[in-house]
Amino acid sequence: MAFKDDYGASQIPILFEDNHILVVEKPVNMPTQEDESRDLDLLNALKADIKERYNKPGNVYLGLVHRLDRPVGGVMVFAKTSKAASRLSDAVRTRQLDKTYVAVVHGKPSQPAATLRHWLWKDTRTNTVSVVKAGQQDAKEAVLDYKLLGSQDGLSLIGIKLHTGRPHQIRVQLAAIGCTLYGDQRYGSAVNKPGQQLALWATALSFEHPVLKENMHFRSLPPEQRPWNQFTIPEL
């Protein structure tokens, strides 16, 4: 199921919907929520769709419980009630909402699998993130697990599980070990060409349903185009 909003935005696949939650596949280059660009964002597009499909009067409630960077596509869950939003937010905070990503990077990590721990500091003026020493003011610890899934023609496919949700975390941590993401202009302009799409995709999301208490698992695959089509994406 998908819809096309009144502003002519790309179709947004709906992976699951009930009275409590809405799970969708975020398009690449669409903001998760309204930003300074004023471009149509996913949250408001989904609200408009719910209002139209269910003929709802007044404002539509839709709770944002996690985010994806604008260039990143893949699976996201939204809450359709305040109770669901509160419980899903708690799941995010207690790391019970399991997020898995795939990325294509330049080069190959020195280890086939590892846990990366860095301290990251965000410069709000430039919206860039840097790896800094532990203890620096306003720096936050970032932790992820990665696994090498394949290598070909100077590129590697990496599977990633996040333990923290810091801004630009995956992009910065992988760049810090010499594996810049394909298409990343912000943290890899030396090896990427202008116009290339960032190769980072939220491929799986698992959590307990906030009301029914059932285990939910959703999977989303990146588009069949370069550089993704050089690899087979396994079940993670």
UniProtKB/TrEMBL annotation:
DNA damage listed as a keyword: no
Entry keyword annotation includes Isomerase: yes
SUPFAM superfamilies: Pseudouridine synthase
Molecular functions (GO terms): catalytic activity, acting on RNA; pseudouridine synthase activity; RNA binding
Residues in the signal sequence: none
Pfam families associated with the record: PseudoU_synth_2
Family to which the UniProt record says this protein belongs: Belongs to the pseudouridine synthase RluA family.
Protein name per UniProt: RNA pseudouridylate synthase
Lineage: Bacteria, Bacillati, Bacillota, Bacilli, Bacillales
